[in-house]
Write a structure and sequence with these properties.
The structure holds 2 protein chains of 2 kinds.
Chain A: E1 5-7, E2 10-13, E3 19-24, E4 31-37, E5 44-50, E6 53-56, E7 65-68, E8 75-79, E9 88-95, E10 107-108, E11 112-116
Chain B: E1 4-7, E2 10-14, E3 19-25, E4 32-38, E5 44-51, E6 56-59, E7 62-67, E8 72-77, E9 86-93, E10 99-101, E11 105-110
Parallel strand pairs in B: 2-11
Antiparallel strand pairs in B: 1-3, 3-8, 4-5, 4-9, 6-7, 7-8, 9-10, 9-11
The chains are: A mainly beta, B mainly beta.
Chain lengths: ~120, ~110
Amino acid sequence: GAGVSQTPSNKVTEKGKYVELRCDPISGHTALYWYRQSLGQGPEFLIYFQGTGAADDSGLPNDRFFAVRPEGSVSTLKIQRTERGDSAVYLCASSFGPSEFPYNEQFFGPGTRLTVL
Amino acid sequence: KQEVTQIPAALSVPEGENLVLNCSFTDSAIYNLQWFRQDPGKGLTSLLLIQSSQREQTSGRLNASLDKSSGRSTLYIAASQPGDSATYLCAVLFNDYKLSFGAGTTVTVRA
């Protein structure tokens, strides 16, 4: 079946602009995750959704970052007033929920490369 | 703080040599450990997942071991090929949803 998809694959924007990054999880996966990967580093956790609600958003760096998952499937990561330091690859992953085995293997999408000029 | 470390940061070997990649983590209470491959400009491809109750997993030329008591995992790639050139990331699930990643080991296999 189809894997996790992310759009756009690349996004170039100017400092101060607003951007939205989209993630389509694997069908049937109730858990969804966003990670951010800076150059030369491993991905860092941003936020975790179980169903429609954000179960843990402790990794969001500040209040310019927000994510939604209104119907428990597609998720959008929103970044307001972008800064050059936001430039990174934003990765989305999905998995089965904690009540479903094997729930804890996360499957990753190809990522969105965000460049803020 | 729960941390994951991968050493070395980069590795270059001639084709045919076996690869040994190391991962260490600070907390032995883990749910699982995953090894990923990442090609330049691409996303993550899962290679192997070892559950907390397991000691190793194998897939083709890949074998990963897990020693929770010492906080270590090792990924072995037998008879390396130029196509194995990539960055390999180790990720640990310390709770039931948040993966913690190492910075990766970039492997170059010389033809």
